[in-house]
């Protein structure tokens, strides 16, 4: 059993990590921290998790990190980098769920988030999209867990760009997310009466997940790729759908793209091309580490329409983090992640 | 007071017509019909409308149409055309909420819906998008009420194409609708537990509102326009958002587009450019005849992002039908339609 | 046109007052205040209300009250009493939506809320449940708008107790409210992801609406009445249902109780006994000033089950306040309040 | 590995059984049947369960039952009894999720549901509320899985009545259920737009779960107990809350009742008294086999208020069925049921 610690465990990604790791056959949660709940039992923060006998502690002193051998950091960006540096200094491994290490180039980070607090560590981090970078993840000491929107976008697009089946120019990514993506903090936007029976875009033309997406599509292309990306807030708790419009290369059809996906993701347990004529629905992957994708030809419009669904808190955050943990520790990738979606 | 009849009043657009017309100062509902509820009081179908003392009758005999002077037909397509023909034969005016008369050219209709049951009547119909075709509507005896998706799409795009501010090629319309758009019939798709906490596209690359949209954008352009249109089902009852991606003409910016909208819709009471930095939210127009639109530059992607919200049952159906009624009867366009959105 | 001012207009009851009063044929909103939004246009607070050309002002100086002739105060309790005193000192009338004047006896208030800031004013206030106290309301200068739970509970129970049809002992009121009852403030409880797919009681055995209910049932009985009252939070924005269990007097049946309601509420436009076998649903009264009630015999349990639905923000707050305004100004009670429920 | 068959697997309780059993370490699903989906893969019915390689078969021929050694029947009542009889005739064990065997006395069944199709089998069945009847369940060949409302009501009430802490007369059970309790069939009631933003009671004074509740409370009391039971429909997918009002015996307080619960349920892994001042919320037990309960004194009303939450599809149906399977097979009761609630 690996002793794992969750730093910043009182948020939604923290709760989801606790849910998954508490049932993981090779992990034991020995440490959860939260500045707000120090000294309090887990159930005061999450009564739903009352069967687990855990108490929040503090992580302001480095000795806190002696309490575990592997760490998940789920802190706001910048705060995360500082803690990650301290954990790495102890010689321990980390999956960081913040945005802090998603760019190897501190300049790219700076463009999106401002000056990086630990630029020296950026290059040490491996981007934790296991379906694409599994080999690097296996040997990593620091894995940057991908953003939810990038996960839902890169997974379907990477193989198609790599295989030259679609044009890398003019890609439109229209993404929709449940409200849990905004975190547990109480805000006007996340008030039930504001989010319920409501639908809107946000951070139009300015969301910081766009450069993260572009960075990896550029790797697939071998040249700079730019996308138009728009996130939307949907009145539901969990789930993310990216509807993607792209120009197919001449003669390329749905069957070609599905074949490319099946080949690229052969043996990868968490990516699935939707069977038959099924249209991916976020409900199909609720609470799981799965990504379901589909594509339809739209010749009249000179486009293909790609759809990709994940659970933003699971494959978009915490279960993906556990998938990375599994790889980093040499476990089977599916350990602790095999459950089916809560239906309905 | 104009005596109005609602044919097919037991569906959601029927209920919304009843809500609006029962409070309309120049209309009196004298007839509501429904095959399913013949002889039953309105409250058996809609207990919410119990204060209204109305009883469903039948419309299988033409004498039924003597009971009113103006008609709203809210029947399934094909069924509607047949009834409309019978009402027109009585010399009475109709706003038809079905798809049956949305194409003046029976061949266009046929391509989307199959052979038209009354091709002779197609050319008599006026497309009831009052912000664009008010003059024709005023003189019409038969108005085809627009589809909800076309309303939300044509309103923002028409002036921009007409003014040559955006390219007419490569337009992507990613639309999202509340569940009421699927009608009141009980289906697997509209089951609460299937639609709640669920998000998906449907009728991808094949929805019949696409040619309706293209038909009017082509008029704006003076040449054939094709779009990529994808509808989505959102877990909420009412509301529709279209997120539209277009290529701006060289040098065109948000301010130019907003100016074009303000000029085109000058004096039009129901179209509004979102004030300040407000992002249109479907909740802002709930239960009203309003359309709120906004646009943002996205130079890095070579696009602009246009957002447009309506209430699919109101401006997307029943209040728009009443707006057409007002114009056809020579009333002020806002009569009975001035209420604010239910908030929250 | 009466010039009306809304003090504390940025909350949900303020927004609902604005929606109703902006369409009221005999009222003109000339003043809205909010400490948080002073100097800002209404749309910055409520974009949904952007068609209204209103700007928030301050009410810290008494001269603010010169801007209107009739006032609605929608402030937190205690804060409200202080402002009401200042308005009354100007010789103007007020409907107060806070809890501050719901008890004529300052001692009763104290037991529930603590020491009253203006005990001298308590006896001047009339309890604004128009279906019971219309005569007093007509002559009042200060009306205390009832709480939402008391409105939904007193309306069905008062006539039955008064007529001696049910025992006044052992009444159980199990009430359920939409989230808007918690106000617009951002809290953990009202976070979308906490309230959605969630159901729970709150303030069990301790909610301050219980004494308010008891106070008026005691008047009906002519002796002290105690009830068991439990509020619940329901994952929906608007609506309130009270399910009430009582012991019928010997031989009393549903028909007797329905008859008592019909007689007591004869000519009262906003109370309705559910027709036929209809079970009251909060959706039936959404956005209206209506209360729908029903009762069923439960002889096996020696009880009757009474159900009563209102919209907590409308009849439970803002439309009821306008009803009181109408009575205080000598207008027809239904002025501005005749619209049907938004359906669906 | 026990080969298990699920008869009537296309409904919601079927899907939940598949979710749980597919991850159960000692069970292998070898048979799923559905008249509607015969020959079709599971994913055509539930795309969410596409990782499972299962195909629906028929159960009209008895040879079908050779395909498994243990059965879960999830059919409508009456249909279930007939199938159960055929399975038992094969010498195999069954947990029946219908209402058909919840009464040992066919006359009691008849009073609620009509004549029993297999009265001879009624007395063979054991009521599958494992926290109370574990010993009988262990030796049973036919277990009748309890109804969801009875589960949520009997669990908190049984120990209190048995210990003589509350009066058995005058108990009021006000229950609230998510929409999934109504099943997967498409009906007007379960239409998203009818159930969303809606709240109402149903089957008032006439629900067939009342006699089931009374039957077991009578066993606790050793004398006939009658309750007043009212179910409500809540706009959420999963979850059930019963708010229960009872008269405490003289001097009995919250602490006494909590103590009685803790003693009665000592060593029972799925019943929990809410810690500290936590109020049970259905979200706390989502997707789990847990029941969380709490009680508050209400001396002013001469009552106590008991709250009890379960997931209607899990502890109220399918996970409880698996708990019974575990006991019948001699497995640890928690096998396959230890996961935490999906949060949020």
Quick structural gist:
Four copies of one chain form a homotetramer. Chain A has 344 residues and is of the alpha/beta class.
Describe the structure.
The structure is a homotetramer of 344-residue chains. Chain A is an alpha/beta fold and 344 residues long. Chain A has two domains: 2-145 and 317-328, NAD(P)-binding Rossmann-like Domain (Rossmann fold, 3-Layer(aba) Sandwich); 148-310, Dihydrodipicolinate Reductase, domain 2, CATH 3.30.360. Chain A is 31% helix and 20% strand. The first copy, chain A, has eleven helices and 14 strands. Chain A has helices spanning 12-21, 42-45, 79-89, 106-113, 119-122, 130-138, 148-162, 192-195, 209-221, 254-264, 314-329; strands spanning 2-7, 27-33, 56-57, 70-73, 93-96, 126-127, 142-144, 171-177, 200-201, 227-233, 240-246, 271-273, 291-298, 303-310. The first copy, chain A, has a seven-stranded parallel sheet with strand order 3-2-1-4-5-7-6, with helices on both faces. Chain A has a seven-stranded mixed sheet with strand order 9-10-8-11-14-13-12. In chain A, a hairpin with a 4-residue loop joins strand 13 (291-298) and strand 14. In chain A, helix 1 packs across helix 11 (314-329), helix 6 (130-138) packs parallel to helix 11 and helix 7 (148-162) runs parallel beside helix 9 (209-221). The longest helix of chain A is centred in the last third of the chain and has 16 residues, at 314-329. The two termini of chain A are 33 Å apart. The interface between A and B is large, with 49 and 49 residues.
